[in-house]
Amino acid sequence: MKGTLNLLFCLFFLVLSFNLSFGQTASVKFEVRIPSEGLPKDSSIFIAGSFNCWNPHDSLYIMQKTGDNLYSLVVPVFDGKKYEYKYTQGDWGSVETSSDSAEIKNRQMISHDGVTITDTVQKWKSPQPSKPKDTTFMFSKKQLNELSKLKEEMLKKMESRVKNITDDLKKSFKNMLSDKPNIKLRNKYHNKAVSDINYVLKTVADLMWKVSSMLTPEQKKAILAEMNNPKAPGDIFGLIMKELNP
Predict the structure, then answer these.
(1) Closest Cα to residue 162, out of 184, 186, 185, 192?
(2) Under CATH, which number does the domain 24-130 receive?
(3) 153 Cβ contact partners less than 8 Å away, ≥ 6 residues apart
(4) Is it the case that residue 13 has pLDDT exceeding 80?
(5) Which of 24, 73, 105, 181 could form a disulfide bond with 63, CB atoms 3.0-4.6 angstroms apart?
(6) What mean pLDDT do residues 23-29 have?
(7) Residue 26 in contact with residue 112, Cβ under 8 Å?
């Protein structure tokens, strides 16, 4: 039970962490052109940086293909803050490099709401040869598409609730810091925030239930083993995506 609750809270705060702030939030659009060389068929392109703890395989940061060798993604961040980032194919063994295969410095940007960042990847780092992976537990393309749809549905459902939580927390703190804090207002904002947080947690729990129904017994066994691995990431979607990709 404790492990399950930890996973739910990890997922909840992964989505919520970019919205609950005393400052303003901003949406930054990243557009990148990538080289076709060194890109395996059906590979996913990720963006990893200081906005997601440098997770190179974060399923919430998979970029959407918008054209030939063109990808984009809108990332929620804090407004007016400096961020660093890089593009990857899902791990640091396939991160972007310079045209001569040398390691490059982290990309940097200052966030502003509505801004579009345009980049070009020169080359991908060539992964080191490894033993063939057991593909017994790999997901099908259909499962990946269903998972992506479920994730999008979850984010849409939670969007207004997360905004409500942000607004109510701001109001609550303003009331708390006023010369004469009003206990009735405090209770009002508190109850509203708790209601919205419960809705968000229920939405996450419902999603997890739907995801579990997609899995075969072999896939469930593989993911459980990965979840029990102390070195595994806390993002349940990341764990699932790891099992998907060879």
Answers:
(1) 192
(2) 2.60.40.10
(3) 207
(4) no
(5) 73
(6) 78
(7) yes
